[in-house]
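Residues determine shape. Take a concrete instance:
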Amino acid sequence: MSDSRVQFSDIYLATEPYVRSAGQVRIGTSGIGWKAAEGETDALEGANIPGLVLPAGMLALQRDDVRRLQWQRVARGYGLRVFMKSGTLHKLDGFNAEDFETLRDGIKRLLHGLTLETRDISTKGWNWGKPDFEGTHMTFRVDNRPMFDLPMSQVSNTNLANKNEVSIEFQAPRARTLKRKNAPDELVEVRFYVPGTTTNTKKADSDGEQASGEEEEEVSAASVVHDTIKERADLGQVSGDSFVQFPEILCLTPRGRYNIDLFSGFLRLHGKTYDYKISYQQVQRLFLVSKPDELHMMFIVGLNPPIRQGQTRYPYLVLQFVRDEELAVDLNFAVDEGTRKFESRLRAHYDEPLYRIVATVFAGVTEKRLVEGGAFRGYHGSQGIKASLKASEGTLYPLEKGLLFAPKPTLYIPHSDIASIVFSRVDASSSNKMRTFDIKLNMHGAQDYQFVSINREEHASLEAYMTEHGIKMLSELNETTAVSYKGMDMDSDDEGRGAARSITKGAAALGINSEDEDSEEDEDFVAGSESDVMEEYDENYVSSGEGEE
């Protein structure tokens, strides 16, 4: 080991969650450097770590940019925490206990002005403490000792669950690209109970002769923590950073009106109660369909992983627009370097219906194909047909490669997942004619779906659609052998006998013989014996006792 530098091998770069890349750390007079070992750079693909150079897999931290250094116990032995003046926190894990003195002496000798602090972690196991914000991290402290850290850069949403409870939701990590069996467990939400109130200082307006100054108001401590998290996690509405904003957009799922801000790598939904930060990588599908009233359009965004409100998951955003509403929108591609990549996909100015602008911009920034209503037309010429999924009313849209049900619950079923479709209550008798029918979707190894209360007028167009796309259709009788009571009417004996024959045929179809082939005569039966039937129905019947009298 040279006196001009100190180096350690098999050290993991843990700045971003779920990064499994080992390498070598070197400390010199210019700063701290980390380089991925041979064959370890693939794990860094897609990582968003400030200062990391790809594909070389090198991280260089200049000495003048480092604010302080900490040594602490971590899951992989011991770790070095590097706090940058910009607020970024870099993590290097995998040190051994005996490396402490070598590292401490090397930092003191090579990085003048910096010392290695020792950070003792609280292991009491208490669930109450104090949140402390430093840079882009929140530290939960117990007895003034840190218990755990929460990186604000990974927060996707925060809200006040109630007056004294703050909920924090986290973005899906890069591990979502792994196969399910290899994906680790993920922390998706944490809640803090913050009791009490505190004073907040705000500017007071001048009133008469009183000069404007500052006044204090009492607010809940939970709201202060909530606002601080929003500020540190960059979840609030930031003017000037987004390259386009769509104000007051009506969202059916989750319900409410939101301002939609689009940035270089994510979009933000800002509402009165909830804020959402959605990465463009979460967007999987885009649909644009017309509602049956022909007055509104629905723009549907499929998300994976979905956004959450407490325990409720929303895998789809459903935005509704008035069809005739037009707007002139300018896109500012000069906000930063990241937005310049959209210049080749989008125009700088749009002047057309709002729903078309939003759909076009979303398709451009996410690079996903926009699926619009196909060639299917219902009985009244609409793109979809009214139906109900369980107790929820909505519209079923037969598209080119699947079936879409909206608005709630939003469901997309590709044709490739459908084994067969069963039509129910279609062949009703003239005396009991149904106005609606049902369809059941038998899926390949998945949950079946049943759509009910479909207008009978839509049967012909729906059947033609299934035939055109090669989807196997079954009637209710073909799916399971059933007894038919069609045409039963007991007003006449002839029709009664005809119904009896129909029941006999139905029983035969089920494998039940009306006459038992193995039956034998009942030897105990005497033809002339007394019968309850004679006594009940023959008015001239005389019992043996009455004849003797």
Summary: Residues 493-509 form the longest helix (17 residues). The helical segments are 99-110, 221-232, 354-366, 459-468, 476-479, 493-509, 532-537, 544-548. The mean pLDDT is 80. The radius of gyration is 36 Å.
